[in-house]
């Protein structure tokens, strides 16, 4: 109410007015927050935090040294909780090529997912590392399918050899497995990648 002496609001009326303004400001701020939050939610795409978890097992085929072929038998396991497209995975077999003048060849002898769906590419390392100056990169095409959680590719049998079958020193091949048991075991020397990122194994230094 107005003060009869000054024409100003009395103490009680002024306090009430302040409270009303405070409530209006709070409502206005809440409305603005909801409006902008809704806009932000529409602008920001959801981000998946799911990672890929998989491993490689390997077994020996022979333990000869020297050997004119590097045999490697693999199986890849999906150890995660989501399906993994094999086309997103690559493996690397690290070895020393002592005869670079004799061209290398990659052979797939058998694969449960189909050898036609597997390819191998040789990459010469610019800087050699421990027991490796060359890498065989094994990849899968889309027709290889995907692995459900807990599923494996089944056996993949591969070989590396020279055109003229020059020898390899297997003791100087980082990924070579020499194991008389000839059973599949987890291997850290054959590395596995998901879209180019290392997810299993230890790269040589």
Number of strands: 12
Number of domains: 2
* Physical arrangement of strands within the biggest beta sheet: 5-9-2-1-10
- Relevant CATH superfamily of the largest domain: Endoglucanase-like
Distance between the termini: 85 Å
Unreliable stretches: 1-9, 21-50
Summarize the structure in words.
This protein is α+β, with helices and mostly antiparallel strands and 205 residues long. The chain has two domains: 1-47; 54-200, Immunoglobulin-like. Helix content is 16%, strand content 36%. It has a five-stranded antiparallel β-sheet, with no helix packed on it. Strands 6-7-4-11-12 form a five-stranded antiparallel β-sheet, with no helix packed on it. A two-stranded antiparallel sheet has the order 3-8. Mean pLDDT is 83; it is low at 1-9 and 21-50.
Secondary-structure blueprint of this entry?
Elements: H1 11-43, E1 54-59, E2 69-78, E3 84-85, E4 89-95, E5 104-111, E6 118-129, E7 132-140, E8 146-147, E9 156-162, E10 185-186, E11 190-194, E12 197-200
Antiparallel strand pairs: 1-2, 1-10, 2-9, 3-8, 4-7, 4-11, 5-9, 6-7, 11-12
């Amino acid at each position: 109410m107005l003060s009869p002496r000054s024409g100003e609001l009395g103490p009680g009326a002024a306090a009430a007015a302040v409270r009303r303004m405070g409530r209006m400001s709070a409502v206005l701020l809440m409305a603005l927050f909801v409006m902008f939050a809704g806009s932000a939610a529409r602008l920001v795409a959801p981000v998946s935090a799911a990672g890929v978890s998989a491993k490689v097992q390997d077994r020996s085929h022979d333990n000869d040294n020297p050997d004119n072929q590097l045999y490697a038998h693999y199986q890849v396991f999906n150890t995660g909780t989501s399906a993994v497209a094999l086309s997103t995975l690559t493996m690397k077999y690290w070895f020393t090529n002592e005869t670079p003048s004799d061209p290398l060849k990659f052979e797939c002898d058998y694969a449960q997912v189909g050898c036609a769906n597997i390819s191998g590419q040789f990459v010469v390392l610019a800087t050699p590392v421990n027991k490796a100056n060359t890498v065989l990169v094994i990849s899968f095409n889309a027709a290889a399918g995907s692995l459900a959680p807990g599923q494996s590719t089944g056996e993949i049998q591969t070989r590396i050899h020279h055109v003229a079958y020059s020898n390899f020193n297997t003791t100087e091949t980082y990924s070579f497995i020499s194991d008389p048991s000839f059973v599949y075991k987890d291997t850290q020397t054959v590395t596995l990648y998901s879209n180019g990122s290392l997810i299993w194994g230890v790269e040589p230094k």
